[in-house]
Amino acid sequence: MKKNALYKGTLQNIILKLLARSEKMYGYQMTQQAKELTSGHLAMTEGALYPILHKLENDGIIESEVQNINGRDRKYYFLTEKGKRYQVEKEEEMVSYISNLNTIFNLKMTKLC
């Protein structure tokens, strides 16, 4: 199994958390931040990132704006007010999920040892 396969179901939550930590971010910046924060374990591809960004934008969770930086247009994404509430809700769900996984795997490791 590829190491990124486990991240697939959590990419939306990862994107939301990255946006919550910053005022706004552009796509490449998100991929690099995720890679840096995970010491290279999460290599988010454009093919995975942009469909999620488009869905979040269509759902009113994020908005985007284009800025010209050094002669190049760059599309920045940011959370809407609805998106900020949604991100908190999703983060709470993720924390609970991780806690449950930790409980399961710690119990399993204890029984195996």
From TrEMBL:
Organism of derivation: Riemerella columbipharyngis
Name recorded for this polypeptide: DNA-binding transcriptional regulator, PadR family
Transmembrane segment boundaries: none
Entry GO MF terms: DNA binding
Domain Transcription regulator PadR N-terminal: 15-86
Keywords: DNA-binding
